[in-house]
Amino acid sequence: MTLQMIADRLGLHVSTVSRVLHAKPGEGLRAASSPTVERVRKLADELGYQRNPHAMSLRTQRSNLIGVLVPRLSDMVLATIYEGVEEAAAEHGLSTFVANTRDIPEEQRARTEMVLARRVDGIIFGDAHSDSGFLDEVAARGVPFVLVNRQAEGHPSVVCDDYLGGRMVAEHLLELGHEDVAVVAGEPYASTGINRTGGFADRFREAGLPIPAHRIVHSRFDARGGRAGTERVLASGPPPSALFVVNDFGAIGALGALRDHGLRVGVDIAVVGFNDTPLAAELPVPLTTVRSPMHEMGRRGLRKLVRVLEGGRAETELLRPELVVRASSDPQQYSALMKH
Amino acid sequence: MTLQMIADRLGLHVSTVSRVLHAKPGEGLRAASSPTVERVRKLADELGYQRNPHAMSLRTQRSNLIGVLVPRLSDMVLATIYEGVEEAAAEHGLSTFVANTRDIPEEQRARTEMVLARRVDGIIFGDAHSDSGFLDEVAARGVPFVLVNRQAEGHPSVVCDDYLGGRMVAEHLLELGHEDVAVVAGEPYASTGINRTGGFADRFREAGLPIPAHRIVHSRFDARGGRAGTERVLASGPPPSALFVVNDFGAIGALGALRDHGLRVGVDIAVVGFNDTPLAAELPVPLTTVRSPMHEMGRRGLRKLVRVLEGGRAETELLRPELVVRASSDPQQYSALMKH
DNA sequence: CTGAAAGCGCTTACAG
DNA sequence: CTGAAAGCGCTTACAG
């Protein structure tokens, strides 16, 4: 099924058929006479004509392809963000290539080259490292891109207002009277962990309760990382009265570590996560957490990239977080839960 | 950077350059004289030449593109399988388009058409419905494809031996003396849930303990679905002594429902999941489950598709499951856990 | 060993 | 309103 075949059957030239089928809304009228337009559209429909994207890309030097790089898709947070990207991309007639970089610089480089070799029009990075010059290099090469989830100085991004989210958690714990708290803070190169921890620590400092350095530990963003981080917190002194783990999966790992130490979540220690993944509400002791608009972040990231591709300006966009209080930190909800 | 530019600088014809740069290993020698080969390779290297994939696809009628359809990437099981697919694809010089179909037939159709419009060479379906003729239609159109995770009559697939896995769980629970058990069985159209439940029920029947129909309930494959399914089990009679939830995320939801009913997992009721996602081991009460080789399944699925594309035969491949016993079903491990 | 030609399927300025 | 031409960047059988 090609334009040529349609043209032949209709006794028209291929260029006429092309104009009719792919004229932009505004110039649809000048493509051909209306009887011709009718005939062409009808036949194309009957034959189920599909434009060949490779021919089009070759000719127009535009692929309608987007590269998406994430640390790992098996992290539900990134997978959900990607679902938003993919959904919005489909609505814009774009297709996406996703690849895992596992937060390893060489893989970030290799995967970037790979999608560029595939001639993507632009890239969405979900794996920005705040301490690396890699994105500056990419920008210097003139590759259009935006960041999602994590931000980096000088590049457009769509992220949750992580700093504010961290403050909200602190506010909540301060209201409950917690004075000795600890943070499992995620990877040191991820703006998410940095800003969530920053907002949290700043709010406690403002309350006259600065958090000592040994109460803040770095960690991987998965359940094992959360467990390991929590173990280090517990090894460094008496258990704090509250623990902020900067992502839900890490918080789940923390639950395991706490239970190994005989600490009852919601009674002996309050735990707060971040993201409000669907798991948080379903846990045996439901997890207090901060809802971040992951799906929406993906959608907006894609739209921002489209704007960049159209030559528009793009600033960093902060999405509003929302505290969701559950039994893991709220004594009232906890005792309601136990009334069975 | 095009072949033409390299040819010009070297005073060669573009066809010679093409032959040198892209000759297959076997015919590499006959591409040009070795000094010419040297010169071409060197310059291509210096200039960082990258073949234009659109031009190549247009010319060769092969895109080196693979479509991957999954219910949803935010399901960690599918995300992990996809990671295997993507990894193996990269090794084979293939790129992938992934799309979510949310297990909705219209979306399965729409996304299939979408990847086909992108001219993929073949498709990997992770969302097969055993009660639908859709895959037969796709096969009838001559589209090469393989299934992963879920199987369907008459189509090549790579899946876990779910029936065996179900039997293993039954065996384990029978050894522990459980006689009154229930199953949260997943979606009725998914071979995973069907076969895991089938193996489990068969083994109990063989032991002279057939499971009554009301003890087997269908459910969605996420935490909320597991919770809802468990609620229905508990509503339909006295609590069973053991509960088999056919996937880990569902099992996590079950934990929530059980705790709402005041049932202590590992004491009042045994719980077993399926997949051994990284979360299972980290839960407050670690979850007994069946390890299924998700990543490997993805890798093998891609390789099987490559074989199909090369015109080879392809049968269904069953991967071996492995029972992982933890405290949620094992009284010994449970009491060891409590010794703090 | 290397070149020349044809053609994959499209788009787009131009001519009539 | 429609056609004809050129060309995007490659590959591949063929000729010399």
Automatic annotation (TrEMBL), chains A, B:
Q: PROSITE patterns given for it? A: HTH_LACI_2
Keyword Nucleotide-binding on entry: no
Q: Report the InterPro entries cross-referenced here.
A: HTH_LacI, LacI/GalR-like_sensor, Lambda_DNA-bd_dom_sf, Peripla_BP_I
> Which domain of life does the protein's organism represent?
Bacteria
Question: What keywords were assigned to this record?
Answer: DNA-binding, Transcription, Transcription regulation
Classification via SUPFAM superfamilies: lambda repressor-like DNA-binding domains, Periplasmic binding protein-like I
Domain HTH lacI-type, first and last residues per copy:
1-60
Q: Which PANTHER family match?
A: HTH-TYPE TRANSCRIPTIONAL REGULATOR GALS, LACI-RELATED TRANSCRIPTIONAL REPRESSOR
This chain's protein is named LacI family transcriptional regulator
Upper classification of the source organism reads:
Bacteria, Bacillati, Actinomycetota, Actinomycetes, Streptosporangiales
